[in-house]
Amino acid sequence: MIYLKKRQSIDGARDLLTSVSISYDVLKLAVAREPGVTKTAVESLPTGSGQDHLPVVIAAMPISARERRIAFSLIIVLAVIDVMVAPFANVRLARADGFIPAVQTVMCVIDLLTAALLFAQYSIYPARALLAVASGYVFSGLFAFIQTLAFPGVYSSTGLIGDGLNSAAWIFALWHTTFPLTLIIYALAKDRRDVARLSSGSIAVNLTVTVAFVLVTTAVLTWLAVNGATYLPALYFNTLEQTPSANNVNIFLWAANLAAFVLLFVRRRTILDLWLIVVLFAWWPNFLVAIFETYVRFSAGWYVARVVALVASSTLLVVLLAESSALYARLTHAYLLLRRERADRLVSVEAATAAMAHEVRQPLTAIATRGTAGLNWLKRTPPDLNRASECLDSMVDATHRANEIITAIRGLFKDTPTQRVMIQINDICSEVLNLVQDDLRVGTITATAEYQENLPQIYADHTQMQQVILNLVRNAIEAMRSGSSDNRRLRLVTGFDEKSSVSVYIQDSGDGIAPEFRDRIFDPFFTTKPGGTGLGLSICRAIAEEHGGALRLSKTDSHGTSFELIFPIGSASDNRTAVRPARSKANIEE
């Protein structure tokens, strides 16, 4: 019986040795990488190439309510302008031969810049449908400029190229056939999961082939319009008056534009779809004026239609530049946060690893040596139980020593100086919502914030507070991914109990936490997520308690989960005063 008990003690010591060894290897691996980047963090980065993983290009970003309102407002403005100008569309105005080259040269530059940005987005998000849109803008930019060369009265009375009468009109027809055609191709192909992992060489080849195809096609079509105009139906009797054939051509062009418009409207998913709809709508007056009026050029409707088309054509370029600037700002902010976090934590992690490597090795070596000796004493015939008992006593002492070392190393993290200042918790919540904007878009989650005004400030580390709330918000987002996309709501509510503490509530509309897990969610290494580490909530609670506050599970059921963060108000002198969770006026459960 004594032999079995001692044998179990030796097995227990071996288990301790194994668990401590694994913990040491994990910690050592965490800092063996690039400073500030753990292996877990690297492995958790998105590696797929679908839309869910690349919400950084407008061809993959879902339409937000704000963008929908802006685009709809612009369409309303364009429609109002069209209605106001319609009664005067056929009014003859002074002939300005410099109008066409000025407007269409600017349009050419805008369209080619837009195409360049779309090609750049293809290098990030290699979807074939994106090449179709970029090709359409290359066609548009080139034909916009080429038409000025053939337009009568611009550079010469008969134009620099063409027959001096119909070539410019046919180039316009080719222009507004190729552009909607590429958008139709895009609309039909954009929902296919054809985003592939391509090497930089493959992407460069695809871009080169696409640009070459567009240039060759443009050259061939231009040659046909310039040299074959005499064999094509006449579109103008003179430089101002259209033929009936021109009306039919304009009906066809408007029908092609309308087909692309309807397809994009029905299949709209992304920001790119939305603004292409606006661009197509802006070109309608050009076709409608030409359909219903015989004398088109240099009329009030003709001038206004070209200016409106120029402004609307610029919208996609503005959106691309705005999204690029916003992305750059978010990346810069994230980089600064990473540097600050690394500066705060890297030294402590390295010190803890060095201490673990140096100090824990000695008691572990003693445990292994004494365990081997104890086994040898027990294998003797008869077993020397006294000597075996001495070995086990030494192993127990070494175990206590290892426990003391680990406790001391944990203290390194708690005692690491932090830069605590007076901060406003409403500002932290606002920063967090800005950081997760793309996650909210991809998850089609509606986020609302209810901030109590004039909240007292708390004395805390800005980065730690941000990371705590950010972790809770991201947990909430993950909890809603499996639910219906029509019922994904995230709420952040701040409040003050009118006494000594402020509170933050984070509520999701997910499926809730299973009853058997509710008492364990704050335990270290406990997780219900397949790729989780089980450290997020335990670290959040530790940071909250280190600041004299608390973190608790406020509510969870089939309608969602809410967490409550409590922090004491005050200054550095009384920051260590702990508070207990208290219900504030802004309790999210109400």
Could you explain the architecture of this structure?
By secondary structure, the chain is of the alpha+beta class. The chain folds into 3 domains: 2-45 and 360-414, no CATH class; 51-333, Rhopdopsin 7-helix transmembrane proteins, CATH 1.20.1070; 420-574, Heat Shock Protein 90 (2-Layer Sandwich). The protein is built from 17 helices and 7 strands. The chain has a 5-stranded mixed sheet, with helices on one face. Strands 1-3 form a two-stranded antiparallel ribbon. A hairpin with a 2-residue loop joins strand 6 and strand 7 (560-568). The protein starts with a helix and ends in a 22-residue tail after the last strand. Residues 1-55 and 575-590 have low confidence and may be disordered.
SSE diagram, text form:
Elements: H1 2-31, H2 39-43, H3 65-85, H4 99-124, H5 128-150, H6 167-189, H7 200-227, H8 244-266, H9 271-282, H10 284-292, H11 300-359, H12 361-379, H13 385-414, E1 420-423, H14 425-435, H15 437-442, E2 446-450, E3 458-461, H16 462-479, E4 489-496, E5 501-507, H17 536-546, E6 550-557, E7 560-568
Parallel strand pairs: 2-4
Antiparallel strand pairs: 1-3, 4-5, 5-7, 6-7
Helix pairs in contact: 1-11, 1-12, 1-13, 3-9, 4-5, 4-11, 5-6, 5-7, 6-7, 6-8, 8-9, 8-10, 9-11, 10-11, 11-13, 12-13, 14-16, 16-17
